[in-house]
Amino acid sequence: MEMQENIGVIGAGSWGTTLADLLAKKGHNVTLWAYEPELVEEMTQTRSNSLFLPGISLSPELKFTNVLQEAVAGKTVLLFVVPSQVTRSVIKSALPFISGSALIVSASKGIELDTLKTVSQIYEEILPQELSANFSALSGPSFAREVAQEMPTAVAVASGRQDVAKHVQHTFTTRFFRVYTNDDVTGVELGGAIKNVIAIAAGISDGLGFGHNTRAALITRGLAEMTRLGRAMGAQTATFAGLAGIGDLVLTCTGDLSRNRSVGIKLGEGRRLAEILGEMRMVAEGVKTTESAYNLASRLKVEMPITEKVYQVLYKDKPAREAVLELMTRDLKAEDF
Ligand SMILES: NC(=O)c1ccc[n+]([C@@H]2O[C@H](COP(=O)([O-])OP(=O)(O)OC[C@H]3O[C@@H](n4cnc5c(N)ncnc54)[C@H](O)[C@@H]3O)[C@@H](O)[C@H]2O)c1
Ligand SMILES: O=P(O)(O)OC[C@H](O)CO
User: Fold this and answer.
1) What is residue 1's predicted lDDT score, i.e. its pLDDT?
2) CATH architecture label of 186-328
3) Where does NAD(+) bind (predicted)?
4) Ligand sitting nearest the alpha carbon of 43
5) Reported ipTM
């Protein structure tokens, strides 16, 4: 085994719990911070997380806390896995306890609503420069439940520094979880954020009773608009052909485990957004990222027609069937990227 690390995992939702468990079972010394005090009690007593990852037995070595300082102070690697809209407040609370040489890994997928910042931009704003250089983004096609069940999975970790990406790669890789390095942080995190918007569209299409043709069209043209936004923000086109781009897009637009796709299905079936969200304890990041991406596209003058229609369905009461018709009857054009 590689060097044992002292790791703090911040966020005990389905993904944070899964990754903390993976790292503990790999032999690292892991402390998992949960926002909900009752969850810490449950996980400590029963070694399971019935709120976000029911049915999975957690490592006997995993430690749990509700006190942020205990999960952060003295750790060599910190993995932040909270919803992107609370990332800013969580990182600010953690900052006083972060050791100066710690590696910071973010596994959140979204774009902040108020600032339109990507997750790495939030970290860059808050962290001092020496910690910012230690930042990496972990993304790619990875349903928590399948990783928790040790099903072979491949993801990407992106950092501006190759040594940081390689360190994280070695820290997380197991025989069922294969991590590729990447140097395009913006591309990797935008792929993870925008695929959630397109997954809502794919869900809407399924909910309306459309078939595979429609879904394939949404995936392909969704990839085109994700790539256009990425290029406008300095990302590399090739990144969108990778795990964090088309990889996660296909997974989320087709997989029944996707929360974003399931929100879309219910919308397509005619249910109201508020009612759908009211029934969910988990986060469907695409709901807020749709608004962020719509505003970002307007600001950067990037054409994102699918995102625009999802925005109108979610926030402007546009009937889903009308949105699809409007997409299909746009001005005809060449197939561009
Ligand atoms: N679940 C997956 O399969 C998966 C895979 C890859 C990436 N992600 C990403 O990981 C991030 C976390 O999602 P998840 O699926 O682990 O969560 P989840 O939907 O399973 O659970 C919600 C999480 O949000 C936390 N939370 C709610 N309000 C909070 C607050 N005010 N402060 C701090 N935490 C708060 C809850 O404690 C819980 O950890 C998201 O950005 C998601 O897109 C999830
Ligand atoms: O369940 P979703 O839609 O949040 O997707 C989970 C992961 O991001 C898939 O890679």
Assistant:
1) 46
2) Orthogonal Bundle (1.10)
3) 11-16, 144, 259
4) 1
5) 0.99
